[in-house]
Model the fold of this input.
Amino acid sequence: MSGSRQARSATAVRPEVALRAEAIRKIFRLRGSEGRRRAVQAVSEVSLELRRGSVLALVGESGCGKSTVARLLARLYPLTSGTLWLDGEKVAGRGGRARRKYASQVQIVLQDPFSSLNASHSIRHHLVRPLLLHRRGSHPGTLDEEAVRLLEEVNLAPGADFLRRYPHELSGGQRQRVSIARSLAVEPEVLLADEPVSMLDVSIRLEILRLLGRLVADRNLAMLYITHDIASARYFATETAVMYAGELVEQGPSEQVTQNPQHPYTQLLLASVPDPDRAAAGDTGRTAPGEPPDLAALPAGCRFHPRCPFAGKRCSTDAPPAVDVGDSHWARCWLFAPGGVTGEP
Done:
């Protein structure tokens, strides 16, 4: 453990919840082809808690708003409304110092490891620059030693061999490890992993997930793991939240959500996962009919009702509440509310 981390842990006991998002929203104002402005509701009233030493998976179809949530939490996008709390303190201020302090505590690992690195700079540059910006190093020798240590922490050894290389000289998995090492350079409290393995070869995806899991345990990080692969959430994440059309529809312990899904959308997500045993029995799985809604023209009532096999009259008119289904597990569905999908007492 570095000296700064020792000093920080000795002076204060950190809250269990490292980062909390409270009813955050993001609306993009776009101009249409005919000059008309459209309000795209990318994220609607999303609340999340990222706890130290654990992983929260955020899953859903492409375009549901998962990556927008990550960018809101990283403050790459400004909030339309809602509040962020870091270490129990409300996040405020947009100035350089406040933003830099937040960035040192909340880091993001992006999906494409090649585009997230600057092809014209060496690996040393990518690691030394955050150390300099956040005043972690004192002289060039110390900076190189710290860069080597970071590379070896993500299993790029010997680290000194990688310092003079450039991104195009590395494999996809190696580039993603460099991206992870760069995020660790400022000793963050929170790591936002936006589909960190989706663009990597299948053979090394498990290695990267195991690396991230070890870092969460060793550094006591709070992690948001964004993925469209709900099956991986069961094995990698402590909790799983399911997102559809900009809002959360189900959340709970990963084992509960994946083994006993309550929301019809979650059930269809799991049914669409390839399963050799099911295929051998002639079952090729199920998918939801139709397409996700236009986020600029959301349907009334439950956003999933046009595709839901259980939809009733109530689903097309009233938005369902989040209903507790037991064991710290909830689902946003009229199936579990008084009156059911018909609304009758």
